[in-house]
Amino acid sequence: MVTTGVSNDRRGQVGIGTLIIFIAMVLVATIAAGALIHTAGTLESQAQATGEESAQQVSSGLVVFSSVGEVSADGTIETVEITVGPTPGSGAIDLESLVVDYTGAGSGGYEEVHADDIRDIEGTVLRSGSDRATIVLEDVSLEAGDDAHVTLMTSEGLETSTELVVPYELEAGETVSL
C-alpha cells in the first residue's frame, strides 16, 4: 500500500471548510440579489409615478387663444379679455380656483379669478376641448407701447403664460389685439 502523506482526517476538514465558504457565498449573493430586486422595484414605481405626472402636465392645462383690450376715451386700456381653453386631451379644469399673476405696467396684481370675471361658459368648468372662457382683468391701465406678463395657474399647479404687448398707436373705442 502506498501512503501519500495526507491523512483522511485532514482531507475531510478541507472539504468542510470549502463547503462553509460556499454556503457563505450563496448567502451573500442571495442578500445582494434581494437588495437589487428591492431597489429595482422602488425605481420602477418612482419612474411610473414620474411618467404619469409628466403625462398629466403635458396633457392638462390651458391654452391662450387670444387677448384683447378695449381702448378707453383717454387712450388707455383698462380692461383685458383673455380667451382660454383646455389643452387637447385635458381633463376638466375648474376656473373658479384659477390664480392669475399679472405683472407689468399698471400692475395691481390679481390673486384669484372669481366667477364674475369669467364669461362665455356655463359655470366655471372647462370640460371639453371646444369649451372656451374669457377671463376679464380690469383696471390694468395699459398705455401705448406698454407690455405686461400674465401667468394663469390652475388648481393642479399647471401654469400657462402669455405676454400682453400694446400697439404703439391706440384709437379711443377700438379693440386691439395684445
From TrEMBL:
Flagellin is the subunit protein which polymerizes to form the filaments of archaeal flagella. Pfam families: Flagellin_arch-type. The keyword Transmembrane helix applies. Belongs to the archaeal flagellin family. The chain crosses the membrane at residues 14-37. GO terms for cellular component: archaeal-type flagellum. PANTHER family: FLAGELLIN B1. GO terms for biological process: archaeal or bacterial-type flagellum-dependent cell motility. GO terms for molecular function: structural molecule activity. InterPro entries: Flagellin/pilin_N_arc, Flagellin_arc-type. This is Flagellin. It is found in: Archaeal flagellum. Keywords: Archaeal flagellum, Cell projection, Cilium, Flagellum, Membrane, Transmembrane, Transmembrane helix.
